[in-house]
Amino acid sequence: MKITRKSILYAIGIIGVLILPILMNQAGNFYAVRVAGLVGIYCILGVGLNITIGYTGLLDLGYIAFYAIGAYTAALASIAGIPFWFGLPIVIIVGGLIRLGLGAPLLRLRGDYLAIVTLGFGEIVRLVLVNLEPITNGPKGLPRVEEKLLDISIFGFKFTENIHFYYLILAFLLIAILISYRMEHSRLGRALVAIREDELAATLTGVNVARVKAVAFTISGIIGAVAGAIYTHWNGFVSPEQFTFWESILIVAMLVIGGMGNIAGVILGVVLLVAVPEVLRASLGTAFVDYRMLLFGIIMIVAIIYRPEGILPSKRRALELKPIEAE
User: Fold this and answer.
1) What phi, psi does 285 have (nearest 5°)?
2) Are 127 and 65 in contact (CB under 8 A)?
3) Is residue 324 pLDDT above 80, yes or no?
4) 128 with 122: CB under 8 angstroms?
5) How many CB atoms lie within 10 A of CB 307?
């Protein structure tokens, strides 16, 4: 078996992801472990959104709404005494059905119109969470003072520390990556790319555009909802202010900078926009926070001008934006 440079880099990356958090935790650097877990959450969200934007070409600016739906569904289930592993199917069903119901009328729209409507849906969900106080406790969030979220446990082992949740998040990230990878390299994935390139041509070749879009849209929403459920139990608290429009924009920015349509590019984008700012915050102080959005804007402008396909785009997308010139 030939050992390539790429396989060596992958091996080093896997070892680092598995071992470094343990070393940091033993060294007492709990903040770094939490940041690593946060990177994992955003990676799950990025992988989910990549299915709609990267594979299908659907500009979804309200993806954070399903992160919120999963978070609140998990919180309400836990408060009602339902353990995480039994509440997770509820989160999947609720997130999937809402996403499917939303997609039925929305997926008839294209381009800017779809982006505007999904943006509006994201804001509607946030406002509902703020104003539906008897259920969501409004802006004060969940759980209420007299309530508590149940601990996640498996075979008697309770997840109580950041390092525990890091590996739980990592496991779900691997599942999301596997689902995304299998979709990309399946008949469904080829249909998604065909729809992204030319919806009319895809229809003429026998692709059921409405059904394929609905499947991709629903799977994407389920992944976002599961990420919300995990984050709620990890954080122990959930409130509407965690799911603003800017969070959706941040996830889209991760895809654009890292490389849409490529899982490795999505992960790179998350590292650049989540991990790097946190490292700089620790080294430069809290003053850096005031310039965070300015830095994001500069990175986006530079990336779009000089690298419109992203840092690590899929090979197909790279050829689309930078076709090989005839000799």
Assistant:
1) 95, 175
2) no
3) no
4) no
5) 17
- Give the separation between CA 121 and CA 136, rounded to whole angstroms: 18
Q: What are the residue ranges of helices labelled H in 80-186? A: 84-106, 111-131, 133-136, 162-184
On whether the CB atoms of residues 268 and 47 are closer than 8 A, the answer is: no
CB atoms within 10 A of CB 238: 27
**pLDDT tens readout for residues 160-217:** 999 999 999 999 999 999 999 999 989 999 999 899 888 889 998 899 999 999 999 9
What average pLDDT does range 278-305 have in this prediction? 72
Classify residue 160 as exposed, middle or buried by CB count within 10 Å of its CB (0-12, 13-18, 19+): exposed
Q: What's the CA gap between 166 and 169, in Å, rounded?
A: 5
CATH of 5-321, one of 1.25.40, 1.10.3470, 1.10.12, 3.60.21: 1.10.3470
Domain boundaries, the chain: 5-321
